[in-house]
Specification:
Blueprint: H1 3-37, H2 40-49, E1 50-57, E2 64-65, E3 71-83, H3 93-101, H4 105-114, E4 120-126, H5 128-136, E5 142-151, H6 159-162, E6 164-165, E7 171-173, H7 174-178, H8 180-184, E8 188-195, E9 200-206, E10 216-217, H9 222-239, E11 243-250, E12 255-262, H10 275-278, H11 281-284, H12 294-303, E13 312-314, E14 319-322, E15 325-328, E16 335-337, H13 338-343, H14 347-354, H15 361-368, H16 395-402, H17 411-417, E17 426-427, E18 442-443, H18 447-460, E19 478-488, E20 491-505, E21 512-519, H19 528-531, H20 533-546, H21 556-563
Parallel strand pairs: 2-10
Antiparallel strand pairs: 1-8, 2-3, 3-4, 3-5, 6-7, 8-9, 11-12, 11-21, 13-16, 14-15, 17-18, 19-20, 20-21
Helix pairs in contact: 3-4, 9-20, 12-15, 12-18, 14-16
Length: about 575
């Protein structure tokens, strides 16, 4: 074959091969253009048919229990039902879904039609059984989201303590809020294979491990919490009062055994969570305590060696003038000893004792007692209160402070302060946790001083005292009543009072302290001894029995009855 023929044959083969390759390239490019321009939705549907996705594993929120592991807040498994409107291919989906959601099919359809969201929750809470039935329908665009819902077995009884969570299971009030990080844990992730209905086909691999929330054990005794809640609720209703607070503590350990407020709310029912009901009055509502401060005034004077229990104080004619202001007693008690000053709750006697001290002496002791400052419980929203500075105050300010005016405190601060009379003069800071860590106890008064004050507190609850209704069978108790006018709009309101009582039991070896305050009682009886003291008696009688405290007030007839 000639050279020219061989060259022509080679050119033809190269042209043919090049043409074939070019045709293949054009075919591939054309197919790519076709798929990306005209087959986009088809490719998307294929991609959606089976995909590997991340699935969130919700963390279990820790349980809140009382000191004996009785549940106060638990998480129960529920499911949420959601839809992706653009994927709803079955026109009859509302009719199929509504019976399992106890809903109206027309309303479900309208709700989805009005929404512009690509993902919409139809219900945040359905039972696992209903969720399984809905999954079995295999409705495209309908998804079941597994989660937990918070439930509060004690309901209203422990509502102000425990608080509640929101729809995302985050703490909003109470200890649910204070210890939200401790209770929450951290959600996990895992790779799953999903079909086009978003249902999990199988698990592919593990991802981020779930970290479950930790449990929280409180110092609360649910038995005493219920008794306190019930007694306070009855007292507030009986007095036709605006509200009330009660705090019961074990003074030896500083553990809060019960904390109740009225009005209450049901944490399981969102409709009852109004601001007025949710407010935790024992830690948020401030008051001028009045007469419960008088034992601290006397204890300070005893500690400084200025008086003794039998020191005589002239209170005639039942009133005295300080810087143009008249301080008066209910009656003219004449010349009485310090014991009687407390038993009769004499404002004149207390003022005269306070005037024996250096101007800063009483105020400093009240500050050491934690009055006018938040407790160590860490409760959210706790008010600090107010204790005046003595740098610029007058004699009238000192006098008012001695009988419980010119300062603002909370009910829980008052309960904490009275722990000094149960601990030989040592202040035991409070805790809401079982075996919780509290700040180091602080000595406020000499032990001998406290031993002199305890009989004065006992006399308040016995014949001739202002709190006879605080007495309980077979036990001697002690305490102090208070009835103060409410301060509002720059002046003291007419016929509006805070009625209070704080007591200790048993007085021979005090262990339990309980402070009660009732806001604006509207019945004919409004004194602290009439309104608040009975709450102490109702609860403390059961406390003595439940904690098996030996009786210290038994006469022969009682002993015979017990023997029989």
């Amino acid at each position: 074959m000639s050279v020219s023929k061989r060259q022509a044959s080679s050119r033809w083969r190269l042209w043919f091969v090049g043409s074939v390759l070019g045709l293949l390239v054009m075919t591939v490019c054309g197919r790519l253009v076709w798929l990306h321009v005209f087959e986009t939705q088809h490719l998307k549907d294929i991609g959606d048919e089976i995909t590997i996705r991340y699935q969130k594993i919700p963390a279990y929120r820790g349980m809140i229990t009382d000191r004996f592991a009785q549940p106060l807040a638990i998480s129960t498994p529920v499911a949420a039902i959601a839809v992706r409107p653009k994927k709803l291919s079955d026109s009859a989906w509302p009719e199929k879904l509504a019976p399992l959601m106890d809903a109206d099919a027309g309303k479900l359809r309208d709700r989805v039609a009005r929404s512009s969201s690509p993902f919409l929750y139809l219900s945040r809470y359905v039972t696992p059984e209903r969720a399984n039935q809905i999954e079995a329908l295999e409705l495209e665009g309908v998804e079941v989201v597994r989660q937990f819902r918070r439930f509060y077995p004690a309901g209203e009884v422990a509502a102000h303590l425990v608080g509640f969570t929101n729809i995302e299971d985050k703490g909003q009030e109470g200890l649910e809020l204070s210890y939200n990080d401790w209770l929450s844990g951290h959600d996990g992730l895992r790779h799953v294979l999903r079909n086009r209905r978003a249902n999990v086909v199988r698990y592919v691999s593990a991802g981020q491990e779930v970290e479950q929330g930790r449990d929280l054990r409180l110092s609360i005794d649910l038995r005493l919490q219920y008794l306190t809640y019930r007694a306070l609720k009855e007292a507030v209703a009986r007095a036709r009062a605006a509200g009330g607070s009660a705090v019961l503590v074990d003074a030896w350990t500083g553990e809060v055994l019960a904390l109740a407020a009225q009005p209450a709310f049901n944490p399981n029912d969102m409709a009852t969570r109004t601001p007025e009901r949710v407010r935790n009055r024992p830690v948020t509502d401030l008051m001028e305590p009045g007469s419960p401060i008088k034992p601290f005034t006397v204890a300070t004077a005893l500690d400084l060696g200025l008086v003794e229990p039998d020191t005589l104080i002239e209170t005639s004619p039942g009133r005295m003038r300080v810087q143009g202001h008249v301080i008066s007693d209910v009656s003219n008690y004449g010349e009485i000893d310090v014991n009687t000053v407390i038993a009769k709750s004499s404002n004149v006697g207390t003022t005269k004792i306070a005037m024996m001290m250096e101007p800063s002496a009483l105020r400093d002791r009240l500050a050491l007692l934690g009055l006018g400052q938040p407790t160590a419980t860490g409760f959210p929203g706790e008010e600090e209160g107010f204790l005046p500075s003595y740098a610029t105050w007058r004699d009238l300010d000192r006098a008012a402070l001695s009988y419980g005016y010119n300062l603002n405190i909370t009910t829980i601060q008052l309960a904490q302060a009275y722990s000094v009379f149960a601990n030989g003069g040592v202040l035991q800071p409070l805790t809401l946790l079982a075996e919780g860590v509290t700040p180091r106890p602080v000595r406020i008064f000499k032990e001998d001083t406290v031993q002199k004050v305890l009989p004065m507190l006992q006399a308040v609850t016995e014949e001739g005292g202002t709190a006879r209704r605080a007495q309980i069978p077979m036990y001697h108790v002690g305490g102090k009543t208070g009835t103060t006018m409410k301060y509002a709009d720059g002046s003291y309101a007419s016929r509006q009072y805070i009625s209070s009582f704080v007591g200790l039991a048993p007085i021979a070896n005090p262990r339990f302290v309980m402070a009660i305050s009732v806001d604006d009682p509207r019945s004919q009886q409004y004194y602290g001894g009439q309104v608040a003291a009975p709450v102490f008696a109702d609860v403390m009688d059961d406390v003595m029995r439940i904690y098996d405290i030996p009786p210290d007030k038994l006469d022969q007839s009682m002993l015979a009855g017990r023997a029989n």
